[in-house]
Amino acid sequence: IDDIQKHLGLIQPAGNTALLDAIYLGAMQLQHAGYPRRALVIISDGADNASRYHFKEIKSMLEEADIEVYAIGLFEPGLLKSYEEIVGKKHLFELTAATGGRTIAIDNLASMSNAAAQISLELRNQYILGYKPQPTLADETRRKIKVRLTPQSDPSLLLQAHYKKAYSIP
Length: 170
Prior knowledge:
The protein has 170 residues and is of the alpha/beta class. The protein contains 5 helices and 5 strands. The strands form 2 sheets. A 3-stranded parallel beta sheet has the order 1-2-3, with helices on both faces. Helix 4 (83-99) links the parallel strand 2 and strand 3. It starts with a helix and ends with a strand.
């Protein structure tokens, strides 16, 4: 971890950003992972101005993959935003929600370690729910899911449900 932090700290960002291409490549690498549970963590402002892939393609691919996507969104307040940054922020939230993950927005680098710790905690404290659906109709290929939590008697318990909103039938 120290080596990674040292090298990342020396990088000076410049040029164009192909975020969607990087997400695609990361998802492809995770298909060869040794463990069945897979997560992709993105650290970005969401801006993309150089990808070959389009947002809808990546979102569709991630919805079909069994990968949870989390993002730490670096969104500095008060700065003039480019079109790519405005759309990119929206896209990060959409991509993570579609996979059952989430985006944690931060406005300064000092908050980075807290956001990473939150993601780590969530990945280690999950429940897996399953059910057996009714037989499908011939034209039905995608089913929506809705998960609700019942209110807890102990208000100090903060429970949140993050889940894929739909799944495809093979």
